Predict the structure.
Amino acid sequence: MALLEIRDVVKRFGDFTAVNHVSLSVEAGEFFTLLGPSGCGKTTLLRMLAGFEQPDSGEIVLDSVNVAAVPPEKRPVHTVFQNYALFPHMTVAQNIAFPLKMANVAADEIKTRVAEVLEDVRLSQFATRYPNELSGGQRQRVAIARALVNRPRLLLLDEPLSALDAKLREEMQIELINLQKEVGITFVYVTHDQGEALALSHRIAVMNKGEVAQLDAPETIYSYPKSRFVADFIGQCNLLDATVKSIGSDRMQIEIAGVGIAETLPVAGAQVGQSGCLTVRPEKIKLGATLPSDDADEVHFKGKVHDCLYLGDVTIYIIELDNGMLVETMLPNSAPGRAKFFDDNDLVELAWRFDAGHFILA
Amino acid sequence: MAKSNRINKWLISGPPLLYLIIFFAIPSLIMAFAAFRFPGDYGGLLPLIGPNPDTGANELLVTAENWRDYLTFENFGLFFTDSIYVELFAKSFWYAGITTLICLAMAYPLAWLIARSPKKYRDLMILLVILPFWSNFLIRVYAWMIILGPQGYFSMAINQVLGLIGIGPVQLMFSHVAVIIVLVYVHLPFMVLPLYANLEKHDMALLDAAQDLGASGWQRFWKITWPLSLPGVWAGAALVFIPALGMFAVPDLVGGTDGIMIGNLIKQQFLDSRDWPFGSVLSIMLTLAVLLLAGFAALIGRGGKRNAL
């Protein structure tokens, strides 16, 4: 049985349904992420896991016990808060010792465990500092150490990296992954940053309007989004409106309005005439002045460069197809001495393998 | 730039500084000096300047030979030889201390409640706290004289209740109980305001964090809210304790002979006994005591400031 099971949980605030019949389970030792835009219900769900909110209906089962009505201080669940919420009148060591004191751990054991966890987060020499004498990254690590020291069954992290700058955030991501492996505690991580979610998680639950839109491993979510919302929210994605023309055993033909016929993988439940959209990631599209058009496995189109965005490592080309539809593609600037391959209004050809795209039924 | 800044600094701080020098520092020095002099024949101080018996011209009467007739330590000796004065000091400290504690116990929950109220009601509540200041201090104390007087409903109600368990009747008016009741009433807003200013700034996320980490309601208060509110507690305590210590009007009006405080004694020395030097000694001792306390509080306060985020 899973460590945590959320069963049909509903939470309303007045007329607003923040969490709408959500069910999911988290395995022991997993790094699980709740991802979604603000207002999608991820934070409310997290607060229910911590105990700060009670679900209107449904169960939250932790270690086979329904904890939905158990107050926060009685749950074996600790939280890393968004702005760390370190106690300003206590030193780093006192902050970390706090949950142990609350749990009536013996004084000498507190000492050794605080020292251990300070070692884990590489803050041993800062034990006697006060929080206002630390940098953002150090505060972050104290908050994590404080939440980990009493070995909770579940560690909740509420957008813990959002207050850090981009470079530090990447360092902390690597640290978090390593720390989670090391301590083996189950992490439930809340973020609105899809890059962070993809980088950190074993599994991601993408949430939208109080419901789970998709729950899968990061690769699956990225490559096979189940809905327009997920495709659009996770990374850059071309969404090409199309209708189903014919369905074969291993391929399906679709007509992209005004552009032409394309082949893609068949989708369960698809019927001829049904509309939907083809999702193709920019990096899966080949781009060239001329491309061989004899490969039957490839979808092939012509267009011209509408815009270029030079990003250093890659250049993003927005290609305008014959019907005016815009497709985003991306080329790594791998050739030495060359900033980019094409300029605005260059005529180009683009192609992608039939299985590079993924059709979503409307 | 630096120069005009300096000029601005003096322009801003100059007037209040001058005011304090003229009306506080110089009079305090005069009073300190008066403590070493003798009382005049008809009150006041024995003059140091007077007409020369031979020439009739005004001149300094103190000389290297006769200064012992004009300057003395006797007044300080009197303060320490008769235990009644030290006892009265102790009693005044006791009254002011009790007043401070009762104010703290009453103001803390109130300030906490206001700080946790919806923002739109807070200003109204603070207005209600300072509303008593809109009427004259003496009128409010006179009102208490009626309330605590033998014919007052409050007194009568108390005696009714005490009568049921076979105690009393007690007289509230003209007792130390009356002094403390009115001292608390007068100073309560001075405790509420700094406490509110402090509690209002507390980050509620800290309490969530403490609860999340296993702290019960009481633990959250004693480990988080209380230590973080200490600067407010010290500020409120100073604002209540120091004025309460020197208060003479309240014990004068509601204290009777039982409820007299150091302030009354000082007033008595200057106005009734006409012993200015000894009144000055009492004033200096009071000031020294308060300074000692303020220094002590500042020392603690500095320890707390370091930890403020």
